[in-house]
C-alpha cells in the first residue's frame, strides 16, 4: 500500500531509513489494466450503466416484490471482480429479468413512470448486442479470475505471477477469432428470438425495427 503515513511503502522506508520505490502488486496491476480496458470501450461502459440501472430498478420495493430471479449485484468500481459478479447474475437470471420488466410494463397497477422505465430497459436488454457484450465480458473476466485469486496468496512469487498473467493473456487472445465471434453472436441472436417469442417461430435478429444488426448497436 502506498499510504503516506501508514502504507507498507512508508513503514518500510521509516524502518530502513531509505527511499523504497512503490510497485503495484501483480493482481492490482491486473485490476488496473482490466478497468482501463473496459472504461475505454463505449459499448462496455453502456453495458455496465444498464446493469446499474437494472440493479436500482429491481431494488425498488414495489418492483422487488415481483422479482423471482437471483439478486442483482451492485457494481463495484473499485474491483473488476464486482463487474464479473454483475454480468454473471445478469446472464443467470436473464429470463427472470425479462419477465419482470414485461410484467411491470404491461400492468396498470404500477405508476406510469415505472412502466416507462421498464419498457426502456426491456428494449435495451433484448438487443442481441446486450447479451453479446455481457457474455464476452463474463468470458474474459472468468478467464482472469483464477489468476487474480491465486496472486493474492502470501506464497505467490514473481515468476509464478508472470506465468499466470501470460497464461491468462493467451486464453483471452484465443477468443479473438472469427469463429468464436460468429458462434457467440449467432447464439445471442437466437436467444433473443427465444426471449421475444418463447413459443418459437420468431423472426431473425436482423429485424429492421430493431436497428441492431451488429454487436455495436446497443
TrEMBL record:
InterPro entries: IFN-induced_PKR_regulator, RNaseH-like_sf. Residues 193-218 are annotated as: Disordered. PANTHER family: 52 KDA REPRESSOR OF THE INHIBITOR OF THE PROTEIN KINASE-LIKE PROTEIN-RELATED (PTHR46289), HAT C-TERMINAL DIMERISATION DOMAIN-CONTAINING PROTEIN (PTHR46289:SF17). This is Uncharacterized protein. It comes from Muraenolepis orangiensis (Patagonian moray cod).
Amino acid at each position: 500500500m502506498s499510504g503516506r503515513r501508514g502504507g507498507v511503502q512508508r513503514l518500510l522506508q521509516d524502518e530502513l531509513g531509505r527511499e523504497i520505490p512503490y510497485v503495484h502488486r501483480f493482481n492490482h496491476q491486473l485490476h488496473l489494466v482490466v478497468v482501463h480496458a473496459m472504461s475505454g470501450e463505449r459499448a462496455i461502459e453502456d453495458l455496465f450503466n444498464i446493469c446499474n440501472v437494472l440493479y436500482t430498478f429491481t431494488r425498488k420495493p414495489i418492483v422487488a416484490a415481483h422479482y423471482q430471479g437471483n439478486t442483482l449485484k451492485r457494481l463495484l468500481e473499485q474491483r473488476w471482480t464486482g463487474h464479473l459478479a454483475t454480468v454473471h447474475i445478469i446472464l443467470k437470471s436473464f429470463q427472470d429479468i425479462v419477465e419482470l420488466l414485461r410484467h411491470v410494463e404491461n400492468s396498470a397497477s404500477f405508476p406510469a413512470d415505472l412502466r416507462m422505465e421498464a419498457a426502456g430497459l426491456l428494449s435495451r436488454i433484448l438487443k442481441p448486442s446486450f447479451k453479446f457484450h455481457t457474455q464476452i465480458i463474463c468470458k474474459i473476466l472468468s478467464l482472469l479470475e483464477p489468476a487474480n485469486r491465486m496472486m493474492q496468496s502470501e506464497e505467490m512469487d514473481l515468476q509464478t505471477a508472470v506465468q499466470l498473467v501470460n497464461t491468462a493473456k493467451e486464453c483471452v487472445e484465443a477468443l479473438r477469432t472469427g469463429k468464436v465471434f460468429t458462434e457467440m453472436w449467432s447464439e445471442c441472436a437466437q436467444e433473443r428470438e427465444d426471449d421475444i417469442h418463447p413459443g418459437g417461430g420468431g423472426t431473425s435478429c436482423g429485424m429492421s425495427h430493431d436497428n441492431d444488426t451488429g454487436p455495436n448497436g446497443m
